[in-house]
Write a structure and sequence with these properties.
It is built from 16 helices and 21 strands. It has about 575 residues and is α/β, with parallel strands linked by helices. Helix 2 crosses helix 3.
Length: about 575
């Protein structure tokens, strides 16, 4: 059958069944989990509304992102889907699930007789001539490392023939290679799945957050196993490694004794550290310790043995990571700390997955040695309750990203088609103006700039209360009259309107007359300057300074003094 024929055959064979636990009034019902069916409806709603934006789906690790992707393909009858993942291991795992439709048939979401999709996992670079045959698949699975090296004519072919581009573990997608590749696809064709919609480098995912399932909700509904934090305090690295190994191994033995099918991972930051740490674990021969990293020979054989639970201790570097599905990983011996919230949450998610015959997750690390980023500091306190702290930290950051995402998406105008508002960094200073107006006419901004004709580039965007203008112009170089050489200059104008208090805040990189510029937009504007600026101190009876720095007018040995304290 052709890809189109297979997709068409799915019509009527997908069922939006929601799983339910047994109660005194009803039996257990198989189906999609709450986050899966919620995400699926959100995606379908986004497509039906015809919005031309990347869709972002936020689902904590272990809540079923992959089955949601599979469900979408069948429910929407996608003819061709390109799935891009961050690692080779995840490529094989995802491709296998697409070939079998995962557990969808077992839980009654897809009928037993439903045709399976044609799936191709792409490894290495393929010439343009091979892609005609490759495109005769319903699903193509590859890694970003592979697509980043594709020739542009191949990328354009994919963009024109693929129904949907799905990015798994999409918190990577702001990297230049990912962003350049994604830019070839129309926004409505792109779905980004992630557990953490924020990155440590401060950049944000491009798109609209369609669905956001909180970590707290996942915890309440039982998709996360409880977490036990076991801090070690050793001020010597070697002593710390030894103590971590002893505590983690003790926990593993107790769990196995209690009948839990658990595996322990000892995480290290690089190959050298992994080899050092592995020497400590070699003594526990009855637990069959194994070392694996990118340079390990016969990795596939070792991975197969790990999946078969032949090794109870795994010492690794960046292995068994994002997207790796092995619920039996329940004990983390962290010899080198993760330093960012996104990476930490991804790592923790490996150990909190639920499955039969599994107990609580345990984390062991040395809280005395490595410095921890401020964001994670409260997690690494001696009496920290991770079951309370993790949802609060994660959901707080995710909520913040949701608000920023919504704010950025409010901007409409020519500027947004060429520049991301998120990438603009205006200075914090601003001139303040008062006005009697409570409305704006942003479209009049050009009338307030008499020199606007000198600018060859004019782009702007606005929301209800904010205007952003980017202007570009060329000028002769100031050291000669060389006609072929010109300076390219750029200017930025940002206006914020506080309608409630009738205050206008203006930030600009150019010497514009504020009243004239703002009069065109608001009708009237009066600059707040002089002693009016200091009227905020009105009715303050006493100023209390607790930090004062003073430069002495005629200092010799001492030119500056600082005074700090409550009595200053």
């Amino acid at each position: 059958m052709t890809p189109a024929g297979i997709a068409q055959s799915w019509d009527g064979h997908f069922h939006f069944n929601k799983a339910q636990n047994a109660t005194e009034f009803s039996d257990e019902k198989h189906g999609l989990r709450s986050p899966q069916i919620g995400a699926l409806h959100s995606i379908m709603s986004h497509l039906e509304c015809g919005e031309d934006e990347n869709g972002i789906i936020v689902m904590p690790t272990g809540t079923g992102k992959t089955e949601t992707m599979l469900s979408f393909m069948v429910a929407h009858q996608c003819i061709r889907t390109l799935v891009v993942v961050p690692s080779d291991a995840l490529r094989s795992q995802i491709a296998k699930k697409y070939r079998t439709l995962g557990i969808l048939k077992n839980i009654g979401v897809v009928d037993i007789e439903t045709n399976l999709p044609k799936v191709k996992a792409i490894m290495g670079l393929k010439p343009f001539s091979d892609w005609k045959a490759i495109m005769e698949q319903n699903v193509i699975v590859t890694t970003m490392a592979s697509v980043a090296k594709l020739e542009e004519n191949i990328v354009r072919k994919l963009a024109s023939e693929i129904d949907f581009l799905i990015i798994d573990e999409a918190h990577h997608s702001k990297a230049d290679t990912w962003s350049n590749f994604i830019s070839f696809f129309l926004g409505r064709k792109v779905l980004l799945f992630t557990a953490t919609p924020f990155r440590n480098d401060g950049k944000r995912l491009d798109g609209k957050i369609l669905f956001n399932y909180s970590l707290r909700k996942a915890q309440e509904e039982g998709y996360y196993k409880p977490i036990k934090f076991h801090p070690i305090i050793k001020y010597n690295k070697d002593d710390g490694d030894q103590a971590i190994a002893e505590e983690a191994t003790k926990i593993l033995r107790e769990d196995l004794k209690n009948g839990f099918d658990h595996i322990m991972m000892a995480r290290c930051k690089d190959h050298k550290r992994a080899e050092e740490v592995f020497k400590i674990y070699e003594q526990y021969t009855d637990l069959s310790p194994v070392l694996i990293h990118s340079g390990t020979p016969r990795k596939n054989e070792i991975m197969a043995r790990i999946n078969n639970r032949e090794h109870k201790i795994v010492v690794c570097v960046n292995m068994l990571g994002e997207g790796y599905d092995l619920p039996q990983l329940k004990i983390a011996a962290v010899h080198d700390e993760r330093q960012s919230l996104p990476i930490t949450l991804q790592f923790i998610g490996r150990f909190t997955r639920t499955a039969p015959n599994l107990g609580a997750a345990s984390f062991v690390t040395n809280i005395a040695y490595a410095p921890i980023s401020q964001e994670l500091n409260q997690l690494y306190q001696q009496d920290a309750d991770w079951n309370f702290l993790l949802p609060r930290i994660s959901d707080g950051r995710t909520s913040e990203e949701q608000k920023i995402n919504d704010f950025m998406r409010e901007f409409k105008g020519s500027l947004t088609k060429e520049i991301s508002i998120d990438d603009i960094r205006p200075a914090l200073s601003a001139e303040v103006y008062s006005t009697t107006s409570r409305t704006t006419n942003w479209g009049n901004w050009e009338k307030g700039l008499p020199g606007i004709k000198q600018y060859q580039y004019k782009r702007w965007a606005s929301t209800m209360d904010m205007l952003v203008v980017v202007l570009g112009h060329t000028s002769m170089v100031d050291w000669g009259t060389v006609g072929k050489m010109e300076n390219l200059g750029w200017d930025l104008i940002v206006v914020y309107f506080d309608a409630r208090n009738r205050r206008i805040y203006l930030n600009s990189t150019m010497g514009i007359r504020g009243e004239r510029f703002l009069d065109a937009i608001f009708g009237n504007a009066i600059k707040v300057d002089g002693d009016k600026v200091f009227r905020i101190f009105h009715d303050i009876r006493r100023l209390m300074f607790t930090t004062v720095g003073a430069r002495l007018p005629h200092g010799k040995d001492i030119s500056f003094q600082s005074f700090v304290g409550s009595s200053v």
